[in-house]
Amino acid sequence: MRKKLGITFALVSLMVLLAGCSSTNTPITSKSTGFWDEYFVYPLSWVITTFAEMMGNNYGLSIVVVTILIRLALLPLMIQQTRSSKAMQAIQPELQKLREKYSSKDANTQQKLQQETMQLFQSQGVNPLAGCLPLLIQMPILLGFYHAIMRTQEIKNHSFLWFDLGVHDPFYILPVVAGITTFLQQKIMMGGTDNPNPQMKMLLYIMPVMIVVFAINFPAALSLYWVIGNLFMIVQTYFITAPNKNKKKEIDRGAKK
User: Fold this and answer.
1) Who has the most CB within 10 Å: 78, 80, 165, 209?
2) Which of 7-11, 123-127, 166-170 has the highest mean pLDDT?
3) SS3 of the chain: helix, strand, coil, percent, to 5
4) Is-above-0.85 flag for pTM?
């Protein structure tokens, strides 16, 4: 878990550093130079603008469509992440037994714990780092969206529904919805887990609060992207996990009989 968090933090920090090298006050154009601007910000700005022009200059609707297209492109990775997460939850009892068996903190015992933990992962086909890849792909997209919104005048100055895309939601509706949908998505992901570990329980409540705080301070367009992405994930997670829940119910019924 520590290695997973360490790798994630290091790569996310790298993306933030790359994004930080570009000023949000500098307009993004086809002539913009630099790795971040050329390969992340401008392509997103161009795609959003192109779809908006096809939809009567409706930039809000364009963001909705682009978000769905991005989620569809990431679908194979997200399915892998969901299945890996469920598999990790399923082996938590075995992991707990190993921790109890090798509870001593000396180096030899901890080495045996790591070896048997890896053997358990391999035997169950679980990759503890599988959940990192979708997150690492989504981070540059999220940062790229922010820069594309702030540095493309057409997007920044456009209104959609009750809010302006370039500033935060004045009624805080989107931040609250972003927090609620984040909670629901994680709750559905945890569904069917009899004894979720303390870290999962903590993230279930901390993540939505963090998202609300971020959404309050960021442009409404970014909150819109997050809400649509969450709704997509909720539907996706439901259809991926529902068959497993039905199988579990059938097994439980058979065991009772």
Assistant:
1) 165
2) 166-170
3) 75, 0, 20
4) no
